[in-house]
């Protein structure tokens, strides 16, 4: 692998490690992130890891920044012992809060219970944060669950809504517009007081819970239509 360095702005460079999204990218992205943080130290303004790249914003001459990046990534290897945290996110899967659950079942030829089991059958790496504070893009879901975004996004999606778009999955950290296919809702607060529960490189397992447990955990079971 040969990282490519691309100019983004006078104080920012993009380090491109890969060309395609793959779960196997994340250990490399995390290893590169750690090396770059060490290489830039206090002259690092921001470092934003994503699916295939790292955006490096710095407070020094661009030429020196490029040299630091090249030097830091020489002989890069993923650290098998490194990685983010593992989270279990409880989800109440139900059509009243996840109106596309029956649609995904019909489209995939599975029952709703099979869709739920399949969605919660594995850990998902967090590829990137974006769209809204604390919104973690995760994947990749089983191909049988892959489905396009809604042709017309909703004007209001409830906080905690869990959805699927193509082969990615996510949970909305706050009330916002959105076009993902909703299949349930989590009671967890994903973004509070400027802190995101999820970070790139973390791994997430969605765990199905019943309605009573969802309420006991502080969940809001208001039907989506009532919040539109």
Automatic annotation (TrEMBL):
Its EC number is 3.5.2.9. InterPro entries: CT_C_D, PxpB. It is an enzyme of class 3 (hydrolase). Coiled coil: none annotated. Keywords: Hydrolase. Pfam families: CT_C_D. Residues 3-198 form the Carboxyltransferase domain. One of its GO terms (molecular function) is 5-oxoprolinase (ATP-hydrolyzing) activity. SMART domains: AHS1 (SM00796). It comes from Pseudomonas muyukensis. This is 5-oxoprolinase subunit PxpB.
């Amino acid at each position: 692998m040969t990282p490519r360095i691309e100019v983004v702005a006078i104080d920012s460079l993009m380090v491109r490690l890969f060309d395609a999204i793959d779960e196997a990218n994340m250990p490399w992205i995390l290893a590169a992130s750690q090396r770059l943080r060490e290489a830039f130290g206090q002259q690092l303004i921001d470092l934003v890891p994503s699916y295939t790249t790292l955006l490096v914003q710095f407070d020094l001459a661009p030429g020196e920044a490029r040299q630091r990046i090249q030097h830091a990534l020489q002989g890069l290897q993923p650290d098998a012992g490194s990685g983010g945290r593992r989270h279990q996110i409880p989800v109440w899967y139900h059509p009243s809060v996840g109106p596309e659950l029956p649609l995904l079942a019909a489209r995939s030829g599975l029952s709703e219970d099979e869709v739920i089991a399949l969605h919660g059958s594995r850990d998902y790496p967090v590829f990137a944060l974006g769209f809204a504070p604390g919104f973690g893009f995760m994947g990749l879901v089983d191909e049988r669950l892959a489905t396009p975004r809604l042709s017309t996004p909703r004007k209001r999606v409830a906080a905690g809504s869990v959805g699927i778009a193509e082969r990615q999955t996510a949970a909305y950290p706050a009330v916002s517009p959105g076009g993902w296919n909703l299949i349930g809702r989590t009671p967890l607060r994903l973004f509070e007081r400027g802190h995101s529960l999820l970070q790139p490189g973390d791994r997430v397992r969605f765990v199905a819970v019943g309605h009573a447990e969802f309420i006991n955990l502080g969940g809001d079971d208001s039907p989506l239509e009532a919040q539109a």
